[in-house]
Amino acid sequence: GDEDAFIHSTTHKHHIDSKGICLFLSFLWNTFPCAENEKPPPSVPISKMKVRDNNGVLLFLLLWAYLAMSRAISPASIASTSLSSVQHHLSTKTNYASRLPLRGSSNAAPSIHNVPDPTNYEPIHLWFLSRHGTRWPTKERMDQISRMTHLFKDARNVKDNPWIRGWQPPFVHMDVAGGQLHSKGEDEMWTLARRLSGRFPSLLETPYLPHRFPVVSSQVHRAAASASAFTSGFFPAVNIDNEIVQSPWAGQREAGTVNKGVSNNGSSCPERRPQAVAISMAPKQADPLLRFYAMCPAYAQREVWLETWLPGWMEEQWAKLAPTLQERLGLTRTMAPSEVEDIWQLCQFEAGVEGITSQACSLLSESDVRLLEWVDDVNLLESHGYGSPINYNIAAPLLHDLRTSLKDAAESAATSSSGQPDKRTHLLFAHCETLVPLATLLGLFKPDTEQPLPAATPFPTDGQVPPPRLARKALAGLDVIEDLAHAMRHDEGHKVQAPLAVDEGMAWVPQGWRPLVAQDDEGRSFRGSAVSPFGANMGLVLYRRKAEGARTGSPASSSSYRVRLLYNEQVLPIPGCSSSSGRSTREEEEEGGGPPDCDLDEFLEITAAAAAQELDALCQAGGSVIGEASTGTGAPTN
């Protein structure tokens, strides 16, 4: 059940059916309850222990048979499912299990589970940032989807679309769930944590204390719930003190069913509970580490300005699909471009969260899905990526935290008698708006285009953009920044006059603007379903040369410490780093690339300028710095 992973190769991605496996293993666990490292009490006969041990081969064969029958590990199982064309192309609404693999130089980047640690090095610290898991649509999106009742009432082609007849919004009395973590998201976080703890078990050999394993979350429910789900799977469970359980004040069930050395299910294994973990948070509107975008007037102004013209361009793209969808639905009226987006929002929810593709998604062809995905990806890049330097330079406080975490761990390990740092992990949980700017600042996922990346994106100050205070207020009232365009169309309090197009019937766009993301590039590196699906994550592992290769107590040096970049459980080279680890993986040799690891000293050097930027200076509304690119590793070069 812990191996809810998909296995990367150059062409296939296989998702193991974890729920079925867990049901199967639950039966085995109740039948053969104790793990290898748990000794049964003396009352258990030796003969029974031998019987259980001898059943190991049988259990393995049964599990293998289950996997084979369920076709969970068969490449053909992906090609045959109706979800294969849609669920992997939902941009940032893609669930983690359906994410697209990240590219190396030519093929999929190698999995962290297939790439060994550097020779003669051991992991001593992990800095880890994760987007929250799969969530419910926000309240604004729930309302948008619920209004589709009128569209489906006008549809006449119920023969080809029988689900339309009697369609009801899926969010009746569900407003309270808007934007909250979905149970699928809880599973994503828990299973991700189990895989990471299994990959780096030595990091968890020290008993938990908050200062050894700090956990930080944004003050948003879905992020905090993701942190809770992750930590419950990451840290080893602890035994419950049976004397406490058997206290005279315990409830009748506990007192009557829990005996010393016997668990609630009657087995001979100790009762266990998840490790209690402290989670730190800063106020939602005063969090420069994880919600820097909410504190930046210049970013807010640019985002509001962006939403005066980019939605118009997006509607032009949606309009291309309106005639076909109008015919498929059997509408007797003209279909509005915004109704195309309504169908896309419903499809994203049904396919990404509920696993349904036989309804809204069935109205869309594969080419339709790719177009809609591309439009979302252009929006993602313009709002949080390479569209403007302000988008990613404001992630400087987070990059500073990353650098400090690695540097402090190296210095702590160098002066420790055990060779281990005081802090073993640093875990952070936030949002797409947090992760994508940091990845961009590091220089990851640059668009494959001959068009120069913008070094500045000026915007007018002639009344089309509200003052800084009002711009920040507009963003502060939203659950996600993505909802701003929708709010500006439907909420009087958010409306801003859009610029007029030169040619009637065409959306206005800034002079010389073209999408940096190519529509027809199947292997493009900047893709929402690969870069920032639900549960997307970035980790940097600090490796220390083993004792036989370096003196304990010696100062940190380039030869002693190395950094490895992990992204969505794949190993990526660090942009701008030229140092070599002295070894390469088979995948890298095939691709002709160098080894992925970077000397710590060089990593600190190439990220110093980008991390040194002051958020207050960057965020001066209307100031000249809004258009200046960082000189750090992620700076665009023309």
| Residue-averaged pLDDT | 79
Q: Give the overall shape, derived from the CA principal axes.
A: globular
What proportion strand? 5-15%
- State the share of residues found in helices, binned by percent: 25-40%
The number of strands is 11
Task: Give start-end ranges of low-pLDDT stretches.
Answer: 1-54, 64-83, 255-262, 496-504, 549-556, 580-594, 622-632
Overall radius of gyration: 26 Å
Structural class: alpha+beta
Main sheet summary: 7 strands, mixed
Q: Span between N and C termini?
A: 48 Å
Number of helices in the DSSP assignment:
24
What does this structure look like?
- The chain is an alpha+beta fold.
- It contains 24 helices and eleven strands.
- The strands form three sheets. Strands 3, 4, 7, 8, 9, 10 and 11 form a seven-stranded mixed beta sheet that branches. It has a two-stranded antiparallel ribbon with strand order 1-2. A two-stranded antiparallel sheet has the order 5-6.
- The longest helix is centred in the middle third of the chain and has 19 residues, at 366-384.
- The protein is globular.
- The two termini are 48 Å apart.
Overview in brief:
With 638 residues, the chain is of the alpha+beta class.
Descriptive labels:
two-stranded antiparallel sheet, single chain, globular, disordered N terminus
